[in-house]
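[job 0412] stage=complex_fold ligand=NBP status=START
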Amino acid sequence: GTAEIGVTGLAVMGRNLARNFARNGFTVAIHNRSFAKTQSLVDDHGDEGTFVASESVEDFVASLARPRKIVVMVKAGAATDAVIDELVPHLDEGDIVVDAGNAHFPDTIRREKALRAKGLHFVGSGVSGGEEGALLGPSIMPGGTAESYQWLGPILEKISAKVDGVPCCTYVGPDGAGHFVKMVHNGIEYADMQLIAEAYDLLKQGLGASAAEIGQIFADWNTGDLESFLIEITADVLQHVDAASGSAFVDIVLDRAEQKGTGRWTVQNGLDLGVPITGIAEATFARALSGSVPQRTAALGTLPAHTTDWQVEDRAAFIEDVRLALYASKVVAYSQGFDQIAAASAEFGWDIDRGAMARIWRGGCIIRARFLNRITEAYERNVDLPLLLADEYFTGAVGNGVPAWRRVVAGAALHGVPTPAFSSSLAYYDGVRAERLPAALIQAQRDFFGAHTYRRTDRDGTFHTTWSGDRTEQDA
Ligand code: NBP
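[job 0412] stage=complex_fold status=DONE, emitting structure tokens
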């Protein structure tokens, strides 16, 4: 065969990815379980480049040049395993299978191991940017062997988004690293969206402003440090008017946020690794709370609020406070997400370059933002930076906003506006910078009821106090 790249799974994502390859001059072998989708791609877009369509897996594999490079873009889970099982008997040593779906990284680790045992390369690759990204240039996060990237890199970098001429695609690390990083990307996306939603709610309740007015505030913010895709679309959404009712669109949408599960995976992994990703966790739980209909119904009009109406006097100052609080909380959420990447990288031996991850998220993906440059620069200054917040740029950028952040969180608490992500981010900030934490008391309690032992501030060793006896201290 002669095709340089193959795509199997031609629903919205695979179809657009195949077109992207073709538009960039690659000869693309295409295949889908049901041939209708393959046919329709050829019928609708066959003139965009060179497609080699096959009805059978056998013909599809045969149409590819070796080592074969096959992108699987099917529904994550059992479908991915089914497709791999079908492909493998037709492949030869050194061939490369890329799973570009939203796989959970433990599945990717399992699949990589199984294919490696057969002499094949398995590349779990995060692809972000939705339908439009797949067609016009996504952010691509490929894992697998470094050797496979020698073959894939030039092709994937060519079709990826570019920022300042730099591709939003780089080798992430072995086996599950690519899908892991995509998972954390999605977790950060949850946090970013929740923070924006809280800022909107604060402006709405504090200023009594309309959706359109708040949309204008977000549009202004998008010209500064907060410039990002999510802020831009927020401004757009808030200014959109519902045709049927004539109301602001956001006001007619049912207030129950759904999720497909990547936020949940991120939080579960944060717990597994013991990394406090409170911003992502609060964002995920906030979606869960919004959908807790029986609880919300039971609470509505029942739980006393003890608040007064919020009448902000200096509107411009309040808007600036919310902007600074949003920026600071956002840096916390990213700082936590990058901690999670560092922890997983150490745990799984992935050696992930965090600065490079921030670089490939600058374009193509949902969290694309100007400020990601600052993160790349921070990790360039110190590749082992233990805390993004402690980088010299961020200590300044966040530090200036701390008084505003405190006013906003305090105001929200006084006036009964729920700001779980703003509030927990500030609590994290104060916790991580504290000279001494009440964890000392937790250790004392644990030693009291469970003889779990403690260490002392004044000398080395592990100790237990005989709480129920004479309360002498023993070496443990
Ligand atoms: P879907 O996730 O809706 O999957 C549909 C595709 O899977 C079709 O090609 C279908 O073939 C194929 N398929 C299924 Br279902 N079961 C199969 C099986 N047992 N054997 C072979 N093929 C099977 O497609 P999508 O929305 O394009 O998403 C593809 C992947 O990309 C997913 O993993 C998704 O999570 C990920 N992703 C999506 C987005 C997005 O914005 N949609 C963004 C980023 C990542 P058929 O045509 O014969 O039914």
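The longest strand covers residues 121-128.
[job 0412] exit 0
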